[in-house]
Amino acid sequence: MSRASDFDDIIDEARLRDEIELAYRETSTLADARTRVVALLKQANADGRDRARALLQSDRKGLLCARRLSHLTDTLIRVVYEFAIARVYKVDNPSAAEHMSICAVGGYGRGTLAPGSDIDLLFVLPYKQTPWGESVVEYMLYVLWDLGFKVGHATRRVDECIRLSRADMTIRTSILEARRICGHDGLFKELTARFAAEVVAGTGTEFIQAKLQERDERHRRQGQSRYLVEPNVKESKGGLRDLHTLFWIAQYFYEVGSGEELVARGVFSRAEYTRFRKCEDFLWAVRCNLHFVTRKPEDRLTFDVQREIARLLGYQARSGLTDVERFMKHYFLVAKDVGDLTRIFCSALEVNHAKSAPMLDRVLGRLARKKRRPLAGSASFFIENDRLMVADDRVFERDPVELIRIFHVADREDIAFHPDALKLITRSLRLVDAALRDNEEANRLFLEILCSPRRPEAVLRAMNEVGLLGRFVPEFGKVVAMMQFNMYHHYTVDEHTLRCIGILSDIENGRIQESHPLATEIFKSGIQNRTALYFALFLHDIAKGRPEDHSVAGAKVARKLSPRFGFTPAETDLIAWLVEQHLTMSMTAQSRDLADRKTIRDFAGVVQTLERLKLLLILTIADIRGVGPGVWTGWKGQLLRTLYYETEPYLLGGHSQLAREKRIESARRELDFALADWPADERERYLARHYPPYLLRVDIDSKLDHAALIRSADREGRRLATRYETKPFEGVTEITVVAPDHPRLLSNIAGACTVAGGNIVDAQIFTTTDGMALDTIVVSRELQHDEDELRRAERITRLIEAALEGREKLPETIARKVVGSKRPSKAFVLETQVTLDNSLSDRFSVIEVSGLDRPGLLYDLTRAISDLSLNITSAHVATFGERAVDVFYVTDLLGQKILSSGRQAAIRRRLTHAFNGTEPEAKAPARKVAVG
Length: 932
Description:
Organism: Methylobrevis albus
Mean pLDDT: 88
InterPro entries: ACT-like_dom_sf, ACT_dom, HD/PDEase_dom, HD_domain, NT_sf, PII_UdlTrfase/GS_AdlTrfase, Polymerase_NTP_transf_dom, UTase/UR
Distance between the termini: 82 Å
Number of domains: 5
Number of helices: 40
Domain ACT: 734-816, 846-925
Largest sheet: 8 strands, antiparallel
Keywords: Hydrolase, Magnesium, Multifunctional enzyme, Nucleotidyltransferase, Repeat, Transferase
Structural class: alpha+beta
CATH topology of the largest domain: Beta Polymerase, domain 2
Radius of gyration: 34 Å
CATH class of the largest domain: Alpha Beta
GO biological process, one term: regulation of nitrogen utilization
Strand order of the largest sheet: 9-10-12-11-15-16-14-13
Oligomer: single chain
């Protein structure tokens, strides 16, 4: 509890009164006095808030800071009220009608206040009123507004308070927490006595239901997971509002005024109440610092401020985690503790509530009379009111393996846990030791839970919520509540892993077949190592937060853990391989040219067997989808399917090993046959327009679309032709451009897409023998309905045409677009990396550029590549949160790889400048020459 001495340095009330009295005596009018008084109050408020902030930075006690700010505000309100009734609206002999009680309500009523919070006041007036009361209230409000306070207020008689409380749950809650600041004590006592007798009495069930429904709705709005990486400290699951909800219910149902009384009532143990206080103090420290840093009532802990809050709270980098990652891990552990306390509280509430009234329909059960039924083959557990319950409080002490078995039973019976069972599990975690971890039966049960054909995610999440999962698998415990400080991952590592398991189960059971037909078909046709796949997915991020690469370190963990769970040496090798390579397929699909045979050949060399390819594909899909909403796209799915289908023949030994010349001739004959309805001479001329790379790399359907576009342009005498097509399943829109070739063509197309808001994810660039360029650009789909997306595609295409015809001045337009765009967050600092690799392709140099994403980036990069006299044959653009990874397959003007080390160094320097937006003045570009 706070002591009076905790507030001594915040404000000197007696001194402030003396200063105000002196100011009053030194002025001749009330208007002048008011001006002086407001100035003194403003200064006192500013000094007090500065002192509260300084004390928070030194002692880091968040709850105490909130109480200091509440005390400061109380003092200012008392002083304003006393000045108003003593000097402005003085009544020498006040009647019963000339009284009022000024009460703090809402969060302020609890005696806590965040720096940017509103001040909620209730002016309680007597039954008979005079103009005096209205005048005093108005005077006080105007002074408080002049001080810069945001005041929420209500002026009511006691009767009105009672009547409105019965009808409105929000008003009822606010009066439940009402606290008298100043004014008539009798009015406040009358309000609280009548509120208890006429509103609270006999309405416990109604209030509890309403508050829990409010909580669930709030969680739905904020996101059901408490492990979102930019949480709302107040409103998110596991935040301050959840603690407030518990205390509201405690005040209402148990009629307690402090948390200490909950210990006396047996609701919380002393240790649990201590945890409650620590959670509350930590969350208040975060919230108060958040308001001070942002200078506004901002409760969302965004990336922009996380690092600064971590510094203010004293976190430092350690054990492979940065300071901000350690802070956020602590935050999520606190949010998890809040969830534990909620379960314990609801369990106690159910036990007590069942004695006097029917159970609550949802949270507190469905039946007042207990209905029990035994479980076949188990004396340790039984079913009570359709929930899994323990036989007695010593079940786990007699046999710690039952800690795992109870979750196995919950999965098998598809049944929820009784809150008392979860409470006992939480209090029995000390029983999880090396002996239990090495127990063959316990490990068998756990593996069956993980690989359950039902819904393993729900049971594993319950294990994680009570703290058992991290205790039983300590390596997993290290990533519990661990966040990754980037914009790509939406959840903590443990939450991401559990979501991945759920997605894998959905794929296996055909619940998301429409989105993942290939993965679903692979499961249906049968895989040899289903259990190994589930276990590898469980371990794929197990080594996050370590200094070394988490994939390599994770493989080491897999080799250590797999034998414990009964896997053979061959299965252990497979699991370790899947963990080590879990990013390989995704990175290859998104950043390599899948039409390049060397890409497929190298990937097949890594995978080696068809079974590994199947497992890696499914694991990759689950991993990407588990990152967060919107991360998985149909285009990523199409890339993965393409990589799978291109690699499969290599692994089966059936891929054509024909010489390049024979493959070129085969592709030419295929196109010739497909154009059989063209006149022979026209067909011959058309085939002669394409260089071999085009014939080898483009599928026949696209070749026919291109042929129709080019033929139509020739007949109409147009040098510029475009077409667009939506691909709903892939989630992309494809734009094809035929135009006279020139060095800045791709750059202009990229610039036009930037201006039009089109996000390019892929590009294929070809040149014809008559100097025309045939470029295919793939942009992310944005609109749900095809007709809307087609209109958007038309708008992008029209802008591309305007840019290529010189009707749109791109540099100026892009500059305006970039200025108006959201800039990258200052929270992230990424080193720009440029690599040039000649080993990834037989015919092209591969340039990979990565760093902090920004508007107009692709335009700047492609323009710089043009200035470097390089030909781009394909571009692959990917973003991972704040990080952009752009890959270009290029040659020099003679169609050769870039082999000179000096030339490579110049390319890296120039592209680094372009990526960072600091590129030097461009020289006149050389003309792009067709590649044969």
